[in-house]
Give the backbone structure.
Amino acid sequence: MKTILKVKNLIMNFGGLRALDHLDIQVREEEIVALIGPNGAGKTTFFNCITGIFPPTGGEIILFPPKKKSKRANRLKPNKITEIGLARTFQNIRLFQNMTVLENVMIGRHCRMSSGIVGAIFRGKATVKEEEQVVEDSFKILKKIGLSEYVNEIAMNLPYGAQRRLEIARAMATEPFLLLLDEPAAGMNIQETKDLNELILRIRDEEKISILLIEHDMRVVMSLSDHIVVMDYGKKIAEGTTEEIKNNPVVIKAYLGEDIDA
Amino acid sequence: MEYFLEIFLGGLTRGSIYALIALGYTMVYGIIQLINFAHGEIYMIGAFTALIVASVLTMLGLNTISILVLASIAAVIYASAYGFTVEKIAYKPLRHAPRLSALISAIGMSMFLSNYVLLAQTSDFLSFPNLIPELKFIEPYSHIIRSNEIAILVTTTAVMIVLTFIIKFTKMGKAMRATSQDREMAMLVGVDVNRVISVTFIIGSATAALGGVLIASHVGQINFYIGFIAGIKAFVAAVLGGIGSIPGAVLGSLILGWTESFATGYVSSDYEDVFAFIFLVLILIFKPSGILGRSESRAV
Amino acid sequence: MNKLNEIKKSFLASLWFMFLTFPIMVIRVNTVQKEIEWRWQNMFFVGISVFFLSFAWRFLFRQMASGRKTIEAGGLDKISLMQQIMNEPKMYYPILFAFTLFAATFPFIFNIYQVNIMTTALMYVVLGLGLNIVVGLAGLLDLGYVAFYLVGAYSYALLNYHFGLSFWLALPIGAFIGALFGILLGFPVLRMRGDYLAIVTLGFGEIIRIIMENWNEFSFGPSGIANIPRPGFFGIEFSLQGSIIFMYFFMICLTLFTIFIVNRLRNSRIGRAWVALREDEVACQAMGIDRTKTKLTAFALGATWAGMVGVIFAAKTTFINPASFTVWESITILCIVVLGGMGSIIGVIFGAFILILLPEYLRAFSEYRMVTFGAVLVIMMVFRPQGIVPDIRHRFKHQGSMVLGGKTKK
Ligand SMILES: Nc1ncnc2c1ncn2[C@@H]1O[C@H](COP(=O)(O)OP(=O)(O)OP(=O)(O)O)[C@@H](O)[C@H]1O
Ligand SMILES: [Mg+2]
């Protein structure tokens, strides 16, 4: 299978703190990769680096969008990276709180649209058509994610689980080839977690989107991932299939105190 | 050479005053990440209180030294009380609101206070009595430095030393440092964050009031508007030094003081107030974290 | 018991404020005549009013807390009537029509003085709508908005003085120069964090004014520029009265035009991007929105309107000097936006009428204007940050399965 994200020797320093230490990670087409590790291991920081929110101190990030030329993403702005085809959710939910659910998803479509100020003012045929298309597409996405009952609610009034799903819907709207999920199951109950599991599998199988997933819930990780990467103190300490990771003494040691019941 | 020295010392005095005000900005910003727009008004209210108290005491026929001491004490007490109250009314309810809300509230407070003084007192300049006695031994050098300026330099230095001591060695200082690092965390380990914030406002206001008394008796007149310009300049100084950093505020203030002093002394005084802003824009473009500030990256 | 406690709290608050306001409110010194005036009655007033206000303050707080609880419990849509009106052209067109009728007959019912005041109010409506793009929609706190207003006014005054340029030519030019300044200032400052942006724009506004005051050869300094011609209309020259009425109608048209444009922008791709930017900058960029470009368009568009109204201001007063463009002017416009409701078009219109007309008609209170504005900003932020007419997000209908008001019929 083709590689779509290749990270080599990635380093990120915050002042004296080295949050990422020579990290190598690869994601292949139609793969679900889980990134696990104790709190403060640097998982979120890794997401922030590859999505352009923090410029990494060193290393290489290379994206291979399907049907397009590969691209080095080290110094690109976050919006450029999203345009190329990475989309993400946030660990501590960052929705556009005072906008409706549908508008949140429409924002995700922004980078796939083209009308500008002039179009907005004169509202010509092309603009009107584009707007209608966006509403249509956004409805479809919400339906797929299972949020159609909330379409016109204000985002901050949604139940917690629905907010997490909306983050996914919004990311999906940008048409990514790789979706980065930062603890999507955090704070969800058992039923919600199960639904989420199914959703993630569906996204991979039906939309052919690869997924890179940070998760503390080992049931989710073990049931979904094709490949697991374990981090601690900014370093990759192990990687492999679920079976390999489950039985890896190094991993068990890093997690000492935390239970990995799979 | 003497002209140079005069300008140099003028800049030093100016910078010291900015430092006394800038401390309040930088401390408050360090703890609640808010530009306290009303801080300049606190300084102005300090100066007004001193003027009023001094006038009343003069009528009662007290001698200059006791007037100076009593007026300064009154200014410090009142400014602190105002700072404390402003925080309780305009900022505390907004602690979890978007930053824009708190900022607008601060602007409203600033406008309210300056116009409150305008209405209750006057829009005219009031002449401020010279409270600081002339020292005999510097008379031969009076064209270079006056006793006023010496008082300013001495006070600023003393305030800095006391403040550094408080922050480094007292329990409250520790709590302040903890709160500015991470408020949630500080709260979890038992720091009374509300008290820390109140104390920060009180200390900042008190030093600003001292600055108000000193500059007013140096310049010799005040009106309700002095807080606005001084406040902005002190803020610029705080940003220049690196907002959140106390030594930074002092350094920034001195640099700004000298720049203004030399620019008006050697170039032109028409655009005196413009330099601060140009400075500000340049720093924020090229080094937003200031000279001594930590560069901050937002947590995501 | 509870009541007693409340009274005690109010009493203490009242004592505290009496202490706080004592030197400034009670004593007044006249340093020239060396006289001191004691105004004990003020202390009494402060005591009484704080006593009652503190009840109101605590009441509002409880009100707000309980309001928040209802929302958390799912009891939403208190404003659904407003929403329905806003979403349904059939509902708001008649209202709009009634307003139009009133506006059209206004100059023939009221005297010239009233018409003049109304024109001023309309100018502030347009300024408010312009600033609303920047502050309300994009969430950029611009405290130097008046700078663009000044630029517009001086563009017309100077172009007319040197080249005899007419009002109608100056109008688009003023708007353009306003936008140009918006972009010039925007480029360096829009990368800054929100609070730095506020102070830098404030500084920029002051710099421009100070330059105008000191650069005599260019701007005629503090004495300003007089005899700026009022606009004609296709060669017709108006009498003073005619000109005032003409200005009024022109402002009505411009206001409608502005509402139209701002409304279209708001519900467009770019308008959504502005709001998203206000809500969460990081998430916004992660969704593929170019932060700098989006901010710059908001800033430049806001400045365009300020430039345009600047030209009108110069033509209306026929005299300008830097004193008309102080930071207070920026704050007044900000106050209009905040009071009305950030992001809300109707809100801003209300805000402008309240804040401009009330002080005009309550002449006795006009000296309390700035104090009140300051208090309004604080109180609105504490108790009602969404303003008197909150911004309502557009609801979309889809295939007949959705209905208005945010609820779904299955
Ligand atoms: N913006 C920042 N500035 C300074 N240090 C940071 C910043 N962001 C993260 N860090 C530090 O980097 C380290 C890694 O943090 P990160 O958030 O990536 O951990 P994580 O693996 O996502 O943990 P968790 O499971 O708790 O989400 C931590 O020590 C954290 O304090
Ligand atoms: Mg994390």
Summary: Residues 2-134+142-286 of chain B form a domain with the ABC transporter involved in vitamin B12 uptake, BtuC fold (CATH 1.10.3470).
